[in-house]
Amino acid sequence: MEGKTVIVTGSNSGIGKETVRDLAKRGCRIIMACRNLLSANQYRDEIANQTGNQNIVVMKLDLSSLQSVREFSRSFLEKESRLDVLIHNAGYANTFTKTVSVDGIELTMATNHYGPFLLTHLLIDILKKSAPSRIIVVASSWYRVWSPDIENLNPIDNNPWLLYYASKGCNIMFTMELAKRLQGTNVTANCLHPGVIDTGIWRNTHTLLKPGLFIWSKLMKNPVIGAQTTIYLATSEEVKDVSGKYFKDCKEDEPRPYITNPEKCLTLWEESIKIVKLQPTDPKI
């Protein structure tokens, strides 16, 4: 990975942190795109000292804010000359409180789908310029719990605890349509299920559920194991020409047909363009 540049969103903890640690050992330049700069800088120094790779940069990114996504992209493009791998790792789960982003978008959907959707558009030209390059989306098999409502893609009145699962479905649908549109560009797009991991994604669990969650956590994978499929998709020559696939445990897996339905994937894409307010001057995919 020497000479390559990688963005990892949400890389100040959990799977993202372990992804950065592994990639740093491989010698690439890493952009840690994080909302919490204090912890991100702490982990940046920790990983740099452990691996000897000082070519790790922390940049501010709040995926729930469309303005923050645009500011991050603008800053990145001003400073960087290439992008070989874009890893959409950041995730948010809201359990009981109905919350909207600064843009009036339901917060879980804003963070897990709409922010990454806009970020991909704004960085697509540099990915094409740097090709062969890769886009990796950390989804989840939890999409089976609750499907995205194609008729209501900004579900601010829905039960918040269901929307994490819907957002993971959106991750898969987004990847499938993205891969289709990137055919012939030498930019690949794949998504993955990391497993059930003991990470900060569970921090917003209701207090009454935390005793049970504590017991369940003993059965979860740790973040190092959870990061392996992401790392595989970012580095392996075996998948350099593979695109539009869903992976689990470093192998291709078959998602349910309803979540890869081409018409629904296209509808999600077209409605997402409207919700993120993509501008005529923005790059097109």
TrEMBL record:
<dbReference type="InterPro" id="IPR002347">
    <property type="entry name" value="SDR_fam"/>
</dbReference>
<protein>
    <submittedName>
        <fullName>CLUMA_CG005121, isoform A</fullName>
    </submittedName>
</protein>
<dbReference type="Pfam" id="PF00106">
    <property type="entry name" value="adh_short"/>
</dbReference>
<keyword id="KW-0560">Oxidoreductase</keyword>
<dbReference type="GO" id="GO:0016491">
    <property type="term" value="F:oxidoreductase activity"/>
</dbReference>
<dbReference type="InterPro" id="IPR036291">
    <property type="entry name" value="NAD(P)-bd_dom_sf"/>
</dbReference>
